Amino acid sequence: MKPTVSKYVSYEQSGVSIEANEEMVEQIYSHVASTFGPRVIRSKNSFAGMFRLDYDEKLFKKNYKNPVLVACTDGVGSKVQLAARAKRLDTVGIDLVAMNVNDMLVQGAEPLFFLDYLAVHKLDPAAIAQMVKGIAAGCRQADCALIGGETAEMPDTYAEGDFDMAGFAVGVVERRRIITGQRVTAGDVILGLASSGLHSNGYSMVRNICFKRAALKMDDAVDELDGAVLGDVLLEPTRIYARSIVKLLSRYKVKRVVHAMAHITGGGLGGNIPRVLPGDCNAVIKKSSWPKHKIFAFLKDAGPIAEEEMYRVFNMGIGFVLMVSEDFADSITRKLTKSGEKVYRIGRITTGTGKVVLK
């Protein structure tokens, strides 16, 4: 006897499970709620997140007089493919937050809240919970709230096991405290903050070199990396500089001693610093002034990759740059070091034409 087949088509037959979505919401809520501060208006089943910008309560240390909202959106790029390959999904969420909040710091903004978008082949509540766990960890590091997000189950768009993620961050800065780079002048000192490694750029080249040319696997221990497991090195999360930078800027309420900042992402030092340089200044950077993570030497040799291309694609060990008044360079270095950053004096501002000179 043939089984009875319903003449009606269900959503689940088309590859999308409403029940799995409901289970996922329950699994991720504790991670999301762990990022909430007193400015978040809690409403578990609302259609949008709510955040109180400022109001006259002693609860907050400061109220903005002329607040400017700063917004960013970014993704993690093909680093998600390595996370999927390793079935390690709880770190790329940190990268997602970092790529957004580190950008808004450049304008001097304090991160306020974050939203995420996750797209998957098939909704696995446990896997999504791991992704959101990482996003929540990044938000806690950045002192911002994860107040919303969306998960899309698209079996016809993504192959089995594949996923992608995007993030959206909003911050705030007092209008008179916006950092634009206009104050940069010859004689300023360039300070570089150490990266945690590759961060989230150049992974198409990384995958080509490691898995095609060198025929390595994610779980291989690599001698050139002091025996470290390749997957551990490649999935090291992007460093989040928010807490250190926000604290630093709060220490100089009157003096404008930080003249410009840059988040070193795709394009490297040479591609990102000019975005905040005046047209009559150059940034002269001494390449030997900071130590390089061994992953960079490994990729350069295994490629092989020309040195110029290395500096064009990767951060080369410097994830964030500040251009500061020479008179305050030492005190700023001490403050950032106290906040846990590795700080290097990597160069100076000279007269020029808005370029980076790598020496």
Helical region count?
A: 11
Strand order of the largest sheet: 10-12-7-13-11-14
CATH class of the largest domain equals Alpha Beta
Order of helices and strands: HEEEHHEHEEEHEEHHEHEHHEHEE
Distance between the termini: 81 Å
How does the overall form come out from the CA principal axes?
Answer: globular
Range of strand content = 15-25%
Rg, please? 22 Å
Overall mean pLDDT score?
Answer: 90
Could you explain how this protein is built, in words?
This protein has helices at 18-33, 79-86, 92-105, 125-142, 203-213, 230-234, 242-250, 268-272, 294-302, 307-313, 329-338, and strands at residues 40-41, 50-51, 67-75, 110-120, 145-153, 163-174, 189-194, 221-222, 228-229, 258-263, 281-285, 318-324, 343-351, 356-358. It has 359 residues and is α+β, with helices and mostly antiparallel strands. A six-stranded mixed beta sheet has the order 10-12-7-13-11-14. The chain has a four-stranded mixed beta sheet with strand order 3-6-4-5, with helices on one face. A hairpin with a 5-residue loop joins strand 8 and strand 9 (228-229). Helix 1 (18-33) packs parallel to helix 4 and helix 3 (92-105) runs parallel beside helix 4. The termini are far apart. The model has no long low-confidence stretch (mean pLDDT 90).
Brief overview:
This protein has helices spanning 18-33, 79-86, 92-105, 125-142, 203-213, 230-234, 242-250, 268-272, 294-302, 307-313, 329-338; strands at residues 40-41, 50-51, 67-75, 110-120, 145-153, 163-174, 189-194, 221-222, 228-229, 258-263, 281-285, 318-324, 343-351, 356-358. It is globular and about 75 Å long.
